[in-house]
C-alpha cells in the first residue's frame, strides 16, 4: 500500500448505528425473565460498528502492508518459509472436516480418526519413530510434551533426574520447555566447528541428566555428524536423546532421526510439511517416540480395531492431556495432503533441493559476508555482519535495506553464538531466479556498506512505515486502543 | 506433484557454482551408515485432482454433519459471516511468518493490536496478549501465571471447569510443585461458596473458575472475587463460550484478575477441535508476567503510527529458561478471524446473537422439561447450555436419539460420576424453533 495512504484502526472508522451483520428474526417467544440475577452488560464501550464494505476495505488494505511467501522469497532461517500449496487450503476447507464437532461420537467421525491415524503412521515412517501424538499445537508445545514423556519414563524407573543438557546454539524454546518440566538447564558450548563437542558432552553427562536436547541439523545448518556417538554417550548414562525437529526439512527421505539413536522428537508441520504460518500460527508440533516412551503418550490415543478407529483414554502411564480435543486438526489435514501429493520421491526431493538452494546462496555470498563457522551446511547457513561492521553497518541495517529491495530479511541475531547473525534459509520451493535476486541484493548491500553506509542506516525507505521505535514501545507500552 | 521451481539446467549451473558433482555430495556430512538406502514406504505421489477426490472421500466418511446436533462442551456451532473466510484467506495474511520485521508486517500487527483491544473490551481487563493455543492451555497458563505472581503452592480449580481443561492443568503442573484442589459445585450448579471459603487459605495462589461453567451455569463472579481477594489470592475466570461476553457483564468489572478462554465462537469453524483460539487478558500491573506475544503501538522515524511486537523480555527467545512461558508460534490467523468476525458482527450484532442464544436455550429448557421424566439438573442461570436429567441412563436414550438422526447432547457420566442420567445440551442461534421442537418430539417418543 502506498505510504501516503494510512489505514486507521477499526475503532477509529466506527460510527454509531452502522452494521455489517443482522441476526435472523427470533423464532421463539422472547422472555425477559431469563438470566435471573446474573450481571448483564448494557453495552460494550467502544466496540466497533462498521459496514461490510468498511470491514472488507479495512482488512484488504491492511493485508497489502504485509510481506508474505506468496509475494516472494522469505529466507527466515529455522522458520522454513516454503510455499504453501493451494490445494492444501482447499481440502482443509471441506465441510466434512470443518463441520465436525470434536465431541461427536467416534462412529460419526471415522474419517477424521482414520486421517489422524494415517498421519501418525506416515510421520513415523518419515522420522523412523514407533509412535506419534498429534496433540501438541506448535513446536514449543511439542517440546514440552516430549520432555514430559522423558520425565514420566524416568519417574517410572524411580528417578526423574535433575538436569537437561542443551547446546548454546539451541532455540530459546528448548530451555524454556525443559524448565517447565521442572528441570535445570545446563548449557553445552559449541566447538569451533559449531557442533557438540564429544568430550564436553561426556564430561557433562551423568546420572543426574535426564536428556540432551539436540537440534539436527543445528541452527547453523550444520549436521551433527557425531550424532550416533552422541546418542551412545547419552544412553550409556541412562539419559534420553531429544531431537528438536525444526530442521527436519533438511533430512526427509535422506536419513531418519529414529535410525540415529533419537528417542523422542517433535516436528513442526508448519515448517517441514508446508502448512502456512498465518502470521504467527496456527502451527502443529507432533511428537514421535520410540517404544520405551510410548506408554506415556498423551491421551486419548487412537487405535484401529477391525478397520474401525476408537479413542482410548484409559492409559495409566499417560502424562494426561496437553491440549483439548485432538490438536490443530485442520493443520494436520493440510500436512497429510502435502505428504500424499509429494510421495516418497517428492519428500526426498524436498530435502535435496532445500540443501542445494541453501548451498548455492552460501557459495554465492561467501566472498561478501563473513561466516564464523566454515563447516559444511545443509538447508540453511549463517552469515554475520563482521565485515560490514568495519563500515559501521549492522545486520539490522542489512536486513532493513533488503526490505527496500522487495525481499524479506533473513533471521537476525540468532543463533546467539554468532554475533550479528544473518541466518538464511531459502527452502526448496524457490526458483534460481528468485535466489539470484536475493544474492544480487545482498551483494549490492555489501557494496553500499562500503560506499554509502548512510543509505543503509536510514533503510527501509519505501515501506508503509519506516524504522519503528521499539524502545519507546517497550518503555511506555500502548497495548490497546482507547476512546479519547 | 512437488513444489520445486528449478529446471535441470538450473540445477547443473547451481551445482557447478557450488563446485560439487551432484546433490548427494552435499549430504556427505551425514554418516553413510545411517543414511536411507531405499525409498520411504509412503503412498505414491498423487496428482492434485486425485488428491482432492481422495480427501473428499475421507471427509465424506464423517457422518456427523448429517445429524441435527446439540453438542457444545467447549466447541460451539455459530454462524460465520462470509467476509471472515474471504478476508482471512488472503495470502497476505495466511503466508507470512510471525511479524519479526514490523516494516513489512503492519497488517498482521495492526490486526493483533485490534484483537487485543477487542479482548480487553469484552473481558473488561486492561491488557490482552496476541493469543494462546486454545482454551485448555490458556487455563493452564493462567495457573502458572498466578503461581508466579503469588509464589504460593496451591491453586483451586472449580470442579465445573471443562474436564479437558482440568486435565491439561494437571499435566502442566505435575512437575512444578503446584498443588491443585477442586472446589465442588452446589445444587445450583454454581461454585459451592461454603466449600470455597473452607478451601481458601494463605497458601492459595488463585481460584480458576469457568463462567458460564461446564454445566452452562453462569457463576457469581463478584462473590467469588470477594472471597478470593480476602485471602489476597487471584481470581482467574475462564470463558469457554466467548459469545457469552456479548451479553454477560465483563469479568474484569466483577473483580477478575485474569481472564482467559477459548475464542472459537468468534468465527472459527468446529474443525474437529482445532485450530482454535486461546486468549488471555489481565490487569496492567501483571503485564510482565503475561505469557505470549504482545503487539504495541509506536511511531516510525517520520513520526507515523506503527505497531511492533513488544515486551519481548518476557519471552523464550530472549529469556530462555526464565521466560514466562515456552510459547512461540501461537494462533495468529485464528485471532485474525476473530477480529474480522467481531468487527463484522459489531456492537449490536454481538449482543443480538448472545441474546438469541439465551432465548433459544430458554425455550429449549422449557419445552424439553415438559417431556415427562425430564428435569433440569441444576437451577442456576444458564447461557446457551444446560444439563438435563432423564429417568434412565443417558447412553440408551442417546442411542435411540442417534437412530433418529439427532445428537442431543454430551453424556456426563464419564467425567462426572453420579451424573450417568444427565446430558449437557447446547442451543445456539443456528437452531431454529423447528429443530428444538423436533428434539422435544423425538425425546418424547424415546422415553415413552
Question: Which terms would index this structure?
Answer:
heterodimer; A: 484 residues; alpha/beta; Aspartate Aminotransferase, domain 2; Aspartate Aminotransferase, domain 1; 3 domains; 7-stranded mixed beta sheet; 3-stranded antiparallel beta sheet; 35% helix; B: 448 residues; 36% helix
Average pLDDT of chain A: 96
Describe the strand arrangement of the main beta sheet of chain B, using strand numbers: 2-8-7-6-5-3-4
Query: In sequence order, what are the helices and strands of chain B, one letter per element?
Result: HHEHHHEHEHEHEHEEEEEHHEEHEEEH
Oligomer: heterodimer
* DSSP strand count of chain A: 12
Q: What is the number of helical segments of chain B per DSSP (H or I, 4+ residues)?
A: 13
Strand content of chain A: 5-15%
Q: Name the biggest interface.
A: A-B, 204 and 199 residues
Share of helix of chain A, binned: 25-40%
The total of beta strands of chain B comes to 15
- Record the strand order, biggest sheet of chain A: 1-7-6-5-4-2-3
Shape, principal axes of CA atoms of chain B: globular
SSE pattern of chain A? HHHHHEHEHEHEHEEEEEHEHHEEHHH
CATH architecture heading of the largest domain in chain B: 3-Layer(aba) Sandwich
Poorly predicted runs of chain A:
none
CATH domain class of the largest domain in chain B: Alpha Beta
Structural class of chain B: alpha/beta
Describe the structure.
The complex is a heterodimer of chains A (484) and B (448). Chain A has 484 residues and is α/β, with parallel strands linked by helices. Chain A folds into three domains: 1-65, no CATH class; 87-341, 3-Layer(aba) Sandwich (Aspartate Aminotransferase, domain 2), CATH 3.40.640; 351-471, Aspartate Aminotransferase, domain 1, CATH 3.90.1150.10. Chain A contains 15 helices and twelve strands. With 448 residues, chain B is an alpha/beta fold. Chain B is 36% helix and 14% strand. Chain B has 13 helices and 15 strands. Chain B has helices at 8-18, 48-60, 82-88, 91-94, 106-123, 135-150, 163-173, 193-199, 221-230, 316-319, 332-368, 394-403, 433-447, and strands spanning 68-69, 127-128, 154-158, 179-183, 204-210, 234-239, 258-262, 278-282, 295-299, 305-309, 375-376, 385-389, 406-407, 410-411, 422-426. A seven-stranded mixed beta sheet of chain B has the order 2-8-7-6-5-3-4, sandwiched between helices. Chain B has a four-stranded antiparallel beta sheet with strand order 11-12-15-14, covered by helices on one side. The termini of chain B are far apart. In chain B, 61% of the residues are buried. The mean pLDDT of chain B is 97. Classes of the chains: A alpha/beta (484), B alpha/beta (448). Chains A and B meet through helix 2, helix 3, helix 4, helix 5 and helix 6 of A and helix 1, helix 2, helix 3, helix 4 and helix 5 of B.
Amino acid at each position: 500500500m502506498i505510504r501516503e495512504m494510512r489505514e486507521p484502526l477499526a475503532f477509529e472508522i466506527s460510527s454509531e448505528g452502522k452494521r455489517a451483520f443482522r441476526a435472523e428474526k427470533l423464532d421463539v417467544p422472547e422472555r425477559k425473565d431469563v438470566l435471573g440475577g446474573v450481571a448483564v452488560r448494557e453495552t460494550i464501550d467502544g466496540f466497533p460498528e462498521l459496514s461490510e464494505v468498511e470491514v472488507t476495505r479495512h482488512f484488504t488494505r491492511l493485508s497489502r502492508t504485509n510481506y508474505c511467501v506468496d509475494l516472494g522469497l522469505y529466507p527466515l532461517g529455522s522458520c522454513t518459509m516454503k510455499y504453501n500449496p493451494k490445494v492444501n487450503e482447499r481440502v482443509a476447507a471441506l465441510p466434512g472436516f470443518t463441520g465436525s464437532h470434536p465431541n461427536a461420537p467416534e462412529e460419526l467421525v471415522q474419517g477424521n480418526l482414520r486421517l489422524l491415524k494415517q498421519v501418525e503412521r506416515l510421520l513415523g515412517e518419515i522420522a523412523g519413530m514407533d509412535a506419534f501424538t498429534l496433540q501438541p499445537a506448535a513446536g514449543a508445545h511439542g517440546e514440552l510434551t516430549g520432555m514430559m514423556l522423558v520425565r514420566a519414563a524416568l519417574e517410572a524407573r524411580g528417578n526423574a533426574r535433575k538436569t537437561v543438557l542443551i547446546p548454546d546454539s539451541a532455540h530459546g524454546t528448548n530451555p524454556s520447555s525443559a524448565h517447565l518440566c521442572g528441570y535445570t538447564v545446563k548449557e553445552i558450548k559449541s566447538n569451533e566447528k559449531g557442533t557438540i563437542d564429544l568430550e564436553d558432552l561426556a564430561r557433562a553427562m551423568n546420572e543426574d541428566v535426564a536428556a540432551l536436547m539436540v537440534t539436527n541439523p543445528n541452527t547453523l545448518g550444520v549436521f551433527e555428524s557425531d550424532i550416533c556417538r552422541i546418542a551412545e554417550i547419552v544412553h550409556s548414562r541412562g539419559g534420553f536423546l531429544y531431537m528438536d525437529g525444526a530442521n527436519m526439512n533438511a533430512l526427509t527421505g535422506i536419513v531418519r532421526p529414529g535410525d540415529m539413536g533419537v528417542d523422542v522428537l517433535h516436528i513442526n508441520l508448519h515448517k517441514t510439511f508446508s502448512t502456512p504460518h498465518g502470521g504467527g500460527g496456527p502451527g502443529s508440533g507432533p511428537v514421535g517416540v520410540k517404544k520405551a516412551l510410548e506408554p506415556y503418550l498423551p491421551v486419548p490415543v487412537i487405535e484401529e480395531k477391525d478397520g474401525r478407529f476408537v479413542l482410548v483414554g484409559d492409559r495409566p502411564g499417560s502424562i494426561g492431556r496437553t491440549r483439548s480435543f485432538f490438536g490443530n486438526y485442520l493443520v494436520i489435514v493440510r500436512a497429510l495432503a502435502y505428504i500424499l501429493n509429494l510421495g516418497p520421491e517428492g519428500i526426498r526431493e524436498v530435502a535435496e533441493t532445500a540443501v542445494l538452494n541453501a548451498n548455492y546462496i552460501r557459495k554465492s555470498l561467501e566472498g561478501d559476508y563473513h561466516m564464523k563457522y566454515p563447516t559444511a551446511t545443509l538447508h540453511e547457513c549463517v552469515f554475520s555482519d563482521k565485515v560490514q561492521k568495519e563500515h559501521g553497518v549492522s545486520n539490522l541495517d542489512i536486513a532493513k535495506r533488503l526490505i527496500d529491495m522487495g525481499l524479506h530479511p533473513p533471521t537476525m541475531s540468532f543463533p546467539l553464538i554468532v554475533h550479528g547473525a544473518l541466518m538464511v534459509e531459502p527452502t526448496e520451493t524457490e526458483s534460481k531466479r528468485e535466489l539470484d535476486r536475493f544474492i544480487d541484493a545482498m551483494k549490492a548491500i555489501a557494496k553500499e556498506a562500503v560506499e554509502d553506509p548512510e543509505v543503509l542506516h536510514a533503510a527501509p525507505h519505501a515501506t508503509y512505515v519506516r524504522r519503528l521505535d521499539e524502545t519507546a514501545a517497550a518503555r511506555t507500552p500502548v497495548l490497546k486502543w482507547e476512546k479519547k | 506433484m512437488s513444489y520445486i521451481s528449478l529446471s535441470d539446467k538450473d540445477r547443473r549451473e547451481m551445482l557447478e557454482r557450488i563446485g560439487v558433482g551432484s546433490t548427494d555430495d552435499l549430504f556427505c556430512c551425514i554418516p553413510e551408515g545411517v543414511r536411507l538406502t531405499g525409498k520411504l514406504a509412503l503412498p505414491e505421489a498423487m496428482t492434485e485432482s486425485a488428491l482432492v477426490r481422495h480427501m473428499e472421500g475421507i471427509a465424506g466418511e464423517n457422518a456427523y454433519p448429517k445429524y441435527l446436533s446439540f453438542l457444545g462442551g467447549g466447541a460451539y456451532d455459530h454462524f460465520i459471516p462470509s467476509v471472515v473466510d474471504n478476508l482471512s484467506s488472503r495470502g497476505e495474511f495466511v503466508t507470512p511468518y510471525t511479524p519479526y520485521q514490523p516494516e513489512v508486517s503492519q497488517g498482521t500487527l495492526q490486526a493483533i493490536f485490534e484483537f487485543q483491544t477487542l479482548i480487553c473490551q469484552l473481558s473488561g481487563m486492561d491488557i490482552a496478549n496476541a493469543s494462546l493455543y486454545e482454551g485448555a492451555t490458556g487455563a493452564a497458563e493462567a495457573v502458572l501465571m498466578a503461581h508466579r505472581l503469588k509464589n504460593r503452592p496451591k491453586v483451586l480449580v472449580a470442579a465445573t471447569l471443562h474436564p479437558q481443561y482440568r486435565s491439561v492443568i494437571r499435566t502442566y503442573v505435575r512437575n512444578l510443585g503446584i498443588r491443585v484442589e477442586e472446589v465442588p459445585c452446589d445444587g445450583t450448579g454454581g461454585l459451592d461458596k461454603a466449600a470455597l471459603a473452607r478451601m481458601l487459605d494463605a497458601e492459595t495462589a488463585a481460584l480458576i473458575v469457568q463462567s458460564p461453567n461446564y454445566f452452562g451455569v453462569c457463576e457469581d463472579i463478584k462473590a467469588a472475587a470477594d472471597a478470593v481477594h480476602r485471602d489476597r489470592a487471584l481470581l482467574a475466570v475462564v470463558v469457554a463460550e466467548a459469545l457469552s461476553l456479548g451479553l454477560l457483564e465483563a469479568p474484569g468489572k466483577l473483580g477478575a484478575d485474569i481472564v482467559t478462554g477459548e475464542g472459537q465462537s468468534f468465527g472459527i469453524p468446529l474443525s474437529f477441535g482445532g485450530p482454535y483460539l486461546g486468549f488471555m487478558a489481565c490487569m496492567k500491573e501483571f503485564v510482565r508476567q503475561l505469557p505470549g506475544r504482545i503487539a504495541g503501538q509506536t511511531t516510525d522515524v517520520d513520526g507515523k503510527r506503527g505497531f511492533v511486537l513488544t515486551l519481548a523480555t518476557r519471552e523464550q527467545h530472549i529469556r530462555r529458561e526464565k521466560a514466562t512461558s515456552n510459547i512461540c508460534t501461537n494462533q495468529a490467523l485464528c485471532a485474525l478471524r476473530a477480529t474480522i468476525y467481531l468487527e463484522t458482527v459489531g456492537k449490536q450484532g454481538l449482543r443480538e446473537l448472545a441474546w438469541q442464544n439465551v432465548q433459544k436455550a430458554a425455550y429449549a429448557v422449557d419445552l424439553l422439561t415438559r417431556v415427562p421424566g425430564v428435569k433440569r439438573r441444576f437451577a442456576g442461570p444458564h447461557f446457551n447450555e444446560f444439563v438435563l436429567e432423564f429417568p434412565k441412563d443417558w447412553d440408551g436414550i442417546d442411542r435411540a436419539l442417534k437412530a433418529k438422526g439427532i445428537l442431543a447432547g454430551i453424556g456426563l457420566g464419564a467425567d462426572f460420576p453420579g451424573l450417568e442420567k444427565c446430558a449437557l445440551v447446547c442451543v445456539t442461534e443456528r437452531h431454529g424453533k423447528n429443530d428444538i421442537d423436533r428434539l422435544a418430539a423425538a425425546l418424547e417418543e424415546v422415553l415413552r
